[in-house]
Amino acid sequence: MSTFFCALAYNKPDVDSLYITADALLNDGNYQGAISLFKELAANEQWVEELENRRKTYNNLGYAYYKIQRFDSSAIYYEKSNQAALILRDTARIIISYNSLAMDYRNLGLYSLSLEKSQMALQYAQMIDDKKKVAQIENTMAIMYASLGEVDKSFSHHLTSVSVSREIGDSVFVAYGYNNLAICFYKLGQYDSSLLYNKKALELKKILNSDSLTLASTMLNIGLDYLKLDSLQMAKDYVLRSHAIHKTLNDINGLAIGFNGLAELAIRKGDLTMAHAFLDSAYTMVNQLGFKNLLVTYYKLRIELLEKEGRFEEALTEVKLLGNLQESVFREESLKTQQVESAYLIRQKDLEAQNLTQEAALARAESRKNEQLMLFLLAGLIAAIVVAFFFFRLNRKLAESYKLIQLQKLDLKHATYNTLTRIQSMLRITSRSMPDRASKEKLHQIESAILSAASLQQFTYDIENEEAVSFGEFLEQLVSRLKDAFSSSGHSDISYSVEIYEDAILPVKTLLNCGMMVGEIVTNAVKYAFEEVEEPKIRVSLTRSGSHLLLQVGDNGVGIDAKKSREGVGTDLVRKLAKYIKAQLTVKNEGGTLYTIRLNA
């Protein structure tokens, strides 16, 4: 504390002015000056006695240290700010402080601690339904899991981040998420999926008019995907396009990665002379950057090139250099981790000592207030016990009632499913004895609709929230039931496939109508499509196109034009069902019949 503040009694206007001055320095980027003044405020017991003053002072100290990359000191003050926010029950500030701590620990290489703080931030963000924060935190956690080598968990969190970002219309974060998903697939060796998400990211970034460097980086990733998939011409096109942009912008990192990619491409094509030239350029760039991970890639490519030229002795020398480099990287990372952990432990001890000193001072100030509140709190405690006992008994009765209602609901679902199944069986028996073709067709339609409803009833048996049901899982179960039904009635030669490229969560009402459409289309195909078709096939797929969900049902049969009877009551029913749920229906004859249902979901 300064001499000025030691000499004078606490003067609120003066400390308010000091805070305003410190905040202005922080906003102007004078972080050292801001740190000095904020520390002066933190040392003033009467100023920090007010919880909000304490919270914002420590938060600003954490931010200032973060900006000068003193992440250990930043973490100490963000911890203090977080403690104050928790006492104040300020949810928005709690989320911010946990997020800030997660970033500090990530920069310190303490990934487990970073994940722990991110998880706490996520819980509070979900509590107040702040979807933007949820998307950001899910993305941060995904990056942490990737750093820990847990690619599957990283992939799961990236998917959630993209889904929430798309829900709130944050296209920039969706594009960023697509890139991250592509990285996950690339690490898993699933290069076709990596290519798909990189292309989605590039398309969206073009719509958003992203800067040239961002577009170039994504193009380079696409080129590397094509390279892994042995599509050498496509790889060349994308790598060269990105390389031209990186060269124009003089982006050394992008150029280094690009030269490595061009060298690998040249090796694949057998142009070893060009491969040497590209590797020489890559080596120059990598040395400028000093990034050892790029140097590891360079050595691996150089070894491959020398082996293709039959220069095995030189290749062996490079293998030794690569081994030394990888060992050096490992040692440096291990040493860095040890140093960070040691520094963190020392800082934690310092923090504990500081907290004890400060808590003692604050305790003295708080004790004066606490004495006056004791009687009031005692009376309040007695009243709370009485109220708590009353609510305990009430809650127990409500819980018992709720449990009974749930059991009755499940019994009703089960009974409904059994009833629908019996009706379906009766309709099938009746239709077999019907001589009239039109009546038999009507019964088949009703049976198909009942089968769809029964499937949905069984599928949602254990689902409490009927406004959020997995469309993809329902389709798989429905088609399986349709296959069993038609196989038992003499159509066992038909092959069925269900392809879910992107699932969707929809309410039961929409799923019922979609299920009835699928059932009707499949029934029509089984009845009319496969006369004189050697290998009959029915395919159901679910994918997304922009903001629309595409449900497609197709066969490889004779098509509607060849069999006019197929464009009749069944297709008319499908059109009416699509119109009811405000979906667009198109029907095409391309090597069979293809129904496309475009849903706004």
From TrEMBL:
Record domain Histidine kinase: where: 411-601
Entry EC no(s): 2.7.13.3
UniProt keywords, alphabetically: ATP-binding, Kinase, Membrane, Nucleotide-binding, Phosphoprotein, Transferase, Transmembrane, Transmembrane helix
Short name of one Pfam family: TPR_12
A single GO molecular function term of this UniProt record: ATP binding
Organism the protein comes from: Cyclobacterium xiamenense
UniProt catalytic activity: ATP + protein L-histidine = ADP + protein N-phospho-L-histidine
Positions of transmembrane segments: 373-394
InterPro entries with a match to the protein in the record: HATPase_C_sf (IPR036890), HATPase_dom (IPR003594), His_kinase_dom (IPR005467), Sig_transdc_His_kin_sub2_dim/P (IPR011495), TPR-like_helical_dom_sf (IPR011990), TPR_rpt (IPR019734)
Record-given protein name: histidine kinase
